[in-house]
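We give this protein:

***
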Amino acid sequence: MNSAVNERRNLVIEHLRSWWRLYHLKWCPGRLDHYKGLDVSFHFYSWAEAYQLTLEGRYVVTMPWFRSREREQLFYLSASLGHFTTRLMTLTGTPAVNLGELKHQPVGVTRGYFYGDGFAARQAGLTLEWSDSDEESMGKLLDGRVHYLVMDEQVAQTLFQQALARHPQSLSLTGAADPIWSQPGYLLMRKVDPEARRLMQLFNTGLRKLERSGRLARLWKA
């Protein structure tokens, strides 16, 4: 079997290192191989690189992504994987505020992320503290260099729990009641890939099995 055919038989999932590494251990669409016999390998890139490599056909799948007109034209979108919610996060004891109330307080954000149209509209009026990764941004919060940060809520909680060993156990993390951004995420497959329809059907079938069994909901809560 040549390398091209072998690559096509592998369902390869791409994602941002600092996000997907946190998600894939607790709920992993790659585990659909138990249902459908697919071999799955994981590779980690920046958002832009993962998207471009998949668009070029180097990989079969990239995830999770939000719906957009361009993506609907170029890719098949899976059934929804679930909602990905971004909030303004802070440590307990810091005044609870909404994003619109912050004018001069630095707000931690990560380069390369899109936090939604609402955030983009307010961005010019905010003092942003940029980081190259979510881990770096969380570190600034824990070290007191910022008192607020914008982050996916599940990623924030995971990073916070990982960092507790190096910080006082009395700390706790809270998120603003109103989300900054909450959208369903999807797995993408290029429409020009001859196997895309078949693979997407297999993926969605496995995803529905996870939903019906209740396992998907349990994994999101883990």
Q: What stands out?
A: Residues 1-35 have pLDDT under 50 and may be disordered.
